[in-house]
Amino acid sequence: MKISMLGSGSKGNATFVETEGMKILIDAGFSGKKLKEKLEGIGKNIEEIDALLITHEHGDHIMGAGIISRKYNIPIYITRESYEAGMKKLGNIAEENLNFLEGEFKLSSKVKVRPFDVMHDAKRTMGFRIVNSSGKKLALATDIGYVDNLVKEHFKGVDIMVIECNYDYGMLMTCSYPQDLKHRVKSNNGHLSNEAAARFICDNYHEGLKKVYLAHVSRDSNRYEKALAVVREELERQDIMVDLEMAYQERATDIFSI
Length: 258
Fold this sequence. Notes:
By secondary structure, the chain is of the alpha/beta class. 30% of the residues lie in helices and 26% in strands. The strands form 2 sheets. The protein has a 7-stranded mixed beta sheet with strand order 6-5-4-3-2-1-14. The protein has a 7-stranded mixed beta sheet with strand order 7-8-9-10-11-12-13. The longest helix has 14 residues, at 224-237. The protein is globular and about 50 Å long.
């Protein structure tokens, strides 16, 4: 199983996953041209993408989804609610490439995907758990306001974890956001704070956890170094050692492989 965070933040989100011969994109929140460039930057060809999984309909997650589906004949997997809410952004999707999420499904005989609901201010927002035939597991939730038991269950026992680490509370309350936006960000349907992400990682840590990515860091109410410092401090406090890496907005991470 391989992964690269192609970019994560309010200006665009996309994650590349490769396993058992399947090449997958989770979200396509950049232009088609930018997605092609980002994939080429990690040595991958956009024409070889087998599936596009969509978490929700916000523009920073679906900007290029319709474009690359049409141009490269890529199947899209999306909830009906997100599709209906994002139809104008997606444009026309070929019927054979439009797949509505209705529980666990197989991308191939060796790759299973289990979508799960997460709390966020979209019509419906999903996280994804991907499992291959050798038992390698990845879970991702990049826009999530609150970690409930359903989320905990889907992150249980994973080898690779991608979790939002969006805001610092002090920075949020003093930044230029209007009050209603500040309230929305810190609500259960908003985003995860650095501290909440740190607690979640520690609560779900197990010896088999090989990699953790901190995703969707706010450019206005957080800093990459602050997010890393808060999470590392909590990991150290609980005597936990795990490979921790930031997902940046503008550049892709190197491919990590297990």
